[in-house]
UniProtKB/TrEMBL annotation:
PANTHER family: PERIPLASMIC BINDING COMPONENT OF ABC TRANSPORTER (PTHR30290), PERIPLASMIC OLIGOPEPTIDE-BINDING PROTEIN-RELATED (PTHR30290:SF10). This is Extracellular solute-binding protein family 5. Keywords: Signal, Transport. One of its GO terms (biological process) is peptide transport. Belongs to the bacterial solute-binding protein 5 family. InterPro entries: Peptide/Ni-bd, SBP_5, SBP_5_dom. Transmembrane segments: none annotated. GO terms for molecular function: peptide transmembrane transporter activity. Residues 90-441 form the Solute-binding protein family domain.
Amino acid sequence: MMNHGLRIGKMIVACCAAVSLTLALGACGAAEGSKAAAGNAASNSGTLVVDNQLNVITIDPARSFETTTASILKATYETALQFKNNDLTKPQPDVCTYEISSDNKVVTLTLNGDHYFADGKKVTVDDIVFSYQRVQGIKGNPSFYLDGVTVAKKDDKSLTLTSETPNPAIPYILPSVNLGIVEKSVVEANGGTTDEKDGAEKYLNQHSAGSGPYQLDSVAMDSQITLKRNDKFAGSKPAYDAVKFVNVAPTTELTNIKAGTADVALSVDVDEAAKLGKNDGQMLTGTSGNTRFLYFNANPTYGKKASDPNFWKAVRHALNYEKYAAVYGVGSKQAYGVVPSAFLGALTSSDENKYDVAKAKEYLAKSGYDGSEIKFSYASDSDSASQVAQLFQSDMKAIGVNVKLDGKAGTARLDAERSGKSQSGLSMWGADYPDPSDYFVFAPDGTMAQRFGWLTADGVAASKTGDAVASDSAEKVAPYAKAAQEASGDEARGKTWQDLQKAMNENSPIIPIVNDAGVIAVRNGLKGAYYDTLNTFDVTALH
């Protein structure tokens, strides 16, 4: 599986660059320490070995946006807030506690006890303010997290984050490893600033400046990154003396788990991991932040017969969702709405998105479909996308719809989707952060909705496309989107988001099909390990 964690939406460019890195260790991949760790975990000693495909460009938390660095940053930097036990529906205190104003514009963070950097100095409000302002100022990939937010010190115990517009997602964004707290004095001494003149990256690629349970010990980005225990860490003593992240080809990772030369494998293939015998190791799965979906063009100029809402309803009931989930491997399941199942406001079922061929045929008859060809775009260079396209073609044939598959490789498929002229297709949205507000892009007039011609009258007026038209179905859903935008508090936000998704399932040309699973493999007896939706693997949870 390509995606681990939540970092797809804004990281496409970064990932493309990272993939070009060569694998230095090839098939050997083993590192000293893993068997010792297996024997000594209970006594808080030994070295944990983590195999991964190390596509590392930088380990500077304000710049890094590669999936493979998330686990490393999680271990070396503390954040103001955190998610516990993989529960992404409620941020919890870490370095700080928080309060959010009733208008969702001001988040106040207050220091939560004493926390210490590796040199023994206490974490201060000044360190947190500097860390956040640096993320904003250097304008790296993660800077969007705090767009429109003013960070200011309130007093020696607290700071405020003030948003230009209501932003209830801020507490859900703050656990991001990119917002890890750095030691201001150390970073400044090594060229750090809060603007684009910042020169601390070189230092931070070799040395940590955080208060996490581990700190960087040695770094060779294309081969091995080693962490050592931070003896000044204020929390529970880390389970291991050291952690080695070793660059290994995915095809070799499971071999190393079976051989006992690795404790954890992070970039394994889900189908291969499922073959692990009970004496070989364990496959651990969990919900990813990916939503796979089908789309149709609501603009009759491009959608043609596929632009009718009754046609969309026919498709929703024609899909054999279990087969689509099976394509993405063990642990993947039907997506009942655009928001992944682990997030606040997710749907747990949907009568509108239920496999029912008879009902599909009823809606198809209402749509006025005349047997004309429906062109379906998909990524021809992806095995899973190709399988889904074939399943879709078969399901549509079963209700009498003539689908022509239009496979395109790489950016050609994405360009076709972005043009706003694609009739239908398969796509994916990976969450930028674990909050439903990241999915307003699918609501009427949203960024994704614009690609599919799903606009209100106001959206048409604001559109730069001369042939844009308003859709009655978009007008029906718009009030639900407004309610979700105005809601305050987790309970109200969760309810309004469920209402919005139900309305979308009745009226939208966007049809969620699969929330695929993330997977890691671990040796038997590794206590506390789980698939971390946000960071792939949390070494700090081991005990």
